Amino acid sequence: MLPKQKIDRINELARKSKDEGLSKKEQEEQRKLREEYLKAFRGGFKDQLRSIKVVDPEGKDVTPEKLKNEKKRYH
């Protein structure tokens, strides 16, 4: 996840954008920060998915093969 300082800056730019608008430099900064945030979010989400194990009511592992293969690639 991004440091709190960067998230605060994203929020500050969003507020300023709504209130008074952003300069070209600020728009570019906002775009880069948003891209960085989304990259970190997606990475964390994929890590969470890789940690999932699906078990049926009888206790058998029924994790989809695609997910099992993804886990093997990263472990």
- Report how far apart the termini are: 21 Å
Shape: elongated
What's the overall average pLDDT, rounded? 93
Q: Report the sheet with the most strands, covering strand number, pairing sense and barrel closure.
A: none
Number of domains: 1
Determine the number of helices (DSSP H or I, runs of at least 4 residues): 3
Given helix and strand content, the structural type is mainly alpha
Order of helices and strands: HHH
Proportion in helices = over 70%
- Cα-atom Rg, whole angstroms? 19 Å
Question: What share of the residues does DSSP label as strand, in percent?
Answer: under 5%
> Spans with pLDDT under 50 lasting ≥5 residues?
none
How many beta-strand elements? 0
What is this structure, in a nutshell?
The protein is an all-alpha fold and 75 residues long.
Task: Label this structure with key terms.
75 residues; mainly alpha; 71% helix; elongated
Indicate the topology.
Elements: H1 4-19, H2 24-50, H3 65-74
